[in-house]
Amino acid sequence: MTLSEKLQQLKKERKAILAANFYNFETLSGILTAASELKLPVILQLSESSIRYLGIGVASAMAKNALREYDVEGWLHLDHGSSVSMVKQCLENGFDSVMIDASEKPFAENIRITQEAVELAKKHHVNVEAELGFVAKLGQDMTGTFTQPEEASEFVSATGVDALAVAIGSAHGFYKKAPKLEIELLSRISKSVTSPLVLHGSSGIPDAMLQEAIRNGICKVNLATETKNAFMRALQETLAGNEEIDLRVVFPKATQSVVQLIKNKLEIINNA
To answer: Are residues 74 and 67 in contact, defined by beta-carbon separation less than 8 angstroms?
Structure first.
């Protein structure tokens, strides 16, 4: 099953799938161990910075082989691709899904760039995600505009995009104050488009609110910040006052913290 088909199935069933970013073998292993133990599908995501860190060929091969080794149904996705050239590189390296993020461009330019990415991805039968509205990135103030149903409908119709990330009150990174998702707006957007909807910035969103968002149209839930945080906090705790130099000794505890985090998120999302 392609990811596009999976997301359409989830939209019909009012369900969602977890899309988790990985940064090294340990975080990849933690995500897939959790998915394997619960026998649930998962999307593995790579940001451009992670691709630069790991190398696109290494990252893609590692993810694809790990999915087979852990016996998990899953897909590899480019998170926040900033250019069509980045999308092209990922398509050439076997990614199952790509995101083109031109959300900070004017509406017409966002459509044009997304159309280009969609046309390119068609040749590879690959899922394309785009973003409409303002979802604050790290360091940005949450003062941008939310996605509107009319614009969402026009955008999806004009681009033919497979999935749409929407701005409904979430933000990337940890929240400085309790987040509040605009569920009623989300419901109206979902009814206005054929594309499944994506929630970016799920780290720190209360469980009940996340489940309500799924019931009202969110089909893909992105998780990144909490994974990095869980891994690094556990690693720092292990290394405090520890003279151990063997990575194979100190990394497992940090990996296990990722396993527990992902299992918890999978259970929340799949019990919505």
So the answer is: yes
pLDDT at 272: 72
How many residues does this entry show for the chain?
272
Indicate if the pLDDT at residue 199 is higher than 80: yes
List, for residues 117-132, the tens digit of each pLDDT value. Answer: 999 999 999 999 999 9
Looking at residue 204, its pLDDT comes to 84
CA distance 268 to 134: 26
Q: Which member of 79, 96, 101, 162 is catalytic? A: 79
> Is 246 labeled as catalytic in the residue annotation?
no
Q: What is the pLDDT of residues 42-101, one digit of tens each?
A: 999 999 999 999 999 999 999 999 999 999 999 999 999 999 999 999 999 999 999 999
Distance CA 225, CA 161 (A): 26
DSSP the chain: --HHHHHHHHHHHT--EEEEE--SHHHHHHHHHHHHHHT--EEEEEEHHHHHHH-HHHHHHHHHHHHHHTT--EEEEEEEE-SHHHHHHHHHTT-SEEEE--TTS-HHHHHHHHHHHHHHHHTTT-EEEEEES--B-TT--S-SPPP-HHHHHHHHHHH--SEEEE-SS-BSS--SS-----HHHHHHHHHH-SSPEEE---TT--HHHHHHHHHTTEEEEEE-HHHHHHHHHHHHHHHTT-----HHHHHHHHHHHHHHHHHHHHHHHHT-
Residue 73 has which token pair?
């149904």
Give the pTM.
0.93
